[in-house]
């Protein structure tokens, strides 16, 4: 009997590459495919990629070399975290030490993230001076994930310094800049990595109300960066202009932005926007249409939005309001700082002294200002279900498919589709991580 396969994700046989590597088949799993949990089908992979089993079976005349029994567990894509400042006592914004030491620190975080189901991430650098960017950014260039090196680095998320003093959060005001000289300000700030071909800077967070920033958004997008708006006192008109200009994300919704007001809802109000330009079906990096979208057939013109689902940064009721307003735009982020994975106590974030209390809340020491979180991606997924009563599929896609769509890499990440990278997890019914695979290799947890 020919192997079972979900034909909706299958590529034509004549497009399947020929490989000689070991073929592995996952059986008895409940797979997240086509926006549903699917039973009675299998997952095949070879050379770090998901493959079409019928092509292998009929064309290559090969049986699997290895069969892994999932024993009824959920089989889902690896989690993608687009905003994480550090973990395990390491801060990506810390430029002290030799490049060799910094690279070793980055690898420590990347390997440690596996235990939480995170198989790829955007290391985030908070507002810094040019000297820090010049030293740190070359170390954050994209690289594949592996058992040896850790979760895949997708490129850096640079959060600031083109952000608002009014909504500075834990960022150092003395580093802040405007774009009064246009793109020259950005090039001067970030240095060569802003223009290189390595794709070092994957996401950039800016405040759209700052002088010159909105005019630079199209050029930043042209350079293949995802522009996100946040740490901002922007009015709704400025926010919508930024979205129309190419910004496709909101950085940690509700945090470090103007509070919602019925006369001018600020950035939060973008979730209710009704007159943004509707993308064409071919447009990438926009959310899929949902029940609340203006067009049922075209991508949603509203941006994705990151949400820190720890119950501290955002009240569960607010998470639920955002989800019901724009379900296909939700992206779960940790915004974790160096205290993630460490016990409560004093730590550092971008040179700032912070304290983690017994409830896992992170504050600038001596103040009540939140300074990032210490939550993990697996906990975010569980909380999202708890806070919103969404389906397990929706929660999982907010940590997998949606961030991949935002970054324009949904052909490689965020799904179990043929041709994608074989980064996946085995989860129990309560969404606890049981086994982790990256590039088709199992990680020893």
Automatic annotation (TrEMBL):
EC code: 3.5.1.25
Keywords: Carbohydrate metabolism, Hydrolase, Metal-binding
Pfam family for this entry, one: Amidohydro_1
Region Disordered, residue ranges: 272-300
Cofactor(s) this protein cannot do without: a divalent metal cation
Gene Ontology terms for molecular function: metal ion binding; N-acetylglucosamine-6-phosphate deacetylase activity
UniProt record, GO biological process: N-acetylglucosamine catabolic process
Protein name: N-acetylglucosamine-6-phosphate deacetylase
């Amino acid at each position: 009997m020919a192997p079972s396969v979900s034909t909706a994700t299958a590529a034509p046989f004549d497009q399947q590459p020929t490989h000689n590597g070991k073929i592995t088949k996952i059986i008895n799993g409940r797979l997240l495919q086509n926006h549903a949990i699917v039973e009675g089908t299998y997952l095949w992979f070879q050379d770090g990629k998901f493959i079409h089993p019928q092509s292998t079976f009929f064309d290559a005349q090969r049986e699997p070399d290895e069969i892994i029994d999932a024993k009824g567990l959920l089989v889902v894509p690896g989690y993608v975290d687009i905003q994480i400042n550090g973990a395990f006592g390491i801060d990506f914004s810390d430029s002290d030490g030799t490049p060799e030491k910094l690279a070793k620190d980055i690898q420590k975080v990347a390997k440690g993230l596996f235990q939480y189901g995170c198989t790829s991430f955007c290391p985030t650098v908070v507002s810094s001076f040019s000297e820090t960017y010049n030293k740190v950014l070359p170390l954050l260039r994209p690289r594949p994930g592996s058992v040896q090196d850790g979760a895949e680095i997708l490129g850096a998320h640079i959060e600031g310094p083109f952000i608002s003093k009014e909504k500075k959060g834990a960022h150092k005001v003395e580093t802040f800049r405007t774009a009064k000289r246009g793109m020259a300000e950005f090039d001067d700030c970030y240095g060569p990595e802003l223009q290189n071909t390595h794709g070092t800077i994957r996401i950039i967070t800016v405040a759209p109300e700052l002088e010159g920033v909105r005019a630079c958004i199209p050029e930043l997008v042209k350079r293949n960066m995802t522009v996100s708006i946040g740490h901002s006192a922007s009015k709704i008109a400025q926010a919508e202009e930024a979205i129309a200009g190419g910004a496709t994300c909101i950085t940690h919704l509700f945090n470090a932005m103007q509070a919602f007001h019925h006369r001018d809802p600020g950035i939060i109000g973008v979730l209710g926007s009704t007159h943004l330009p509707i993308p064409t079906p071919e447009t990438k990096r926009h959310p899929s249409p949902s029940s609340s979208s203006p067009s049922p057939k075209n991508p949603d013109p509203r941006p994705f939005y990151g949400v820190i689902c720890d119950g501290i940064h955002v009240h569960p009721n607010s998470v639920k309001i955002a989800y019901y307003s724009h379900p296909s735009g939700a992206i779960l982020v940790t915004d974790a700082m160096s205290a993630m994975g460490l016990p409560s106590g004093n730590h550092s974030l971008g040179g700032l002294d912070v304290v983690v209390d017994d409830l896992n809340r992170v504050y600038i020491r001596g103040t009540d200002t939140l300074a990032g979180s210490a939550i993990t991606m697996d906990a975010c997924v569980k909380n999202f279900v708890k806070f919103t009563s969404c389906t397990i599929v929706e929660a999982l896609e907010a940590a997998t498919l949606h961030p991949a769509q935002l970054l324009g890499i949904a052909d490689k990440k965020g799904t179990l589709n043929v041709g994608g990278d074989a980064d996946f997890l085995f989860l129990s019914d309560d969404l606890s991580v049981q086994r982790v695979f990256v590039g088709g290799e199992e990680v020893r947890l």
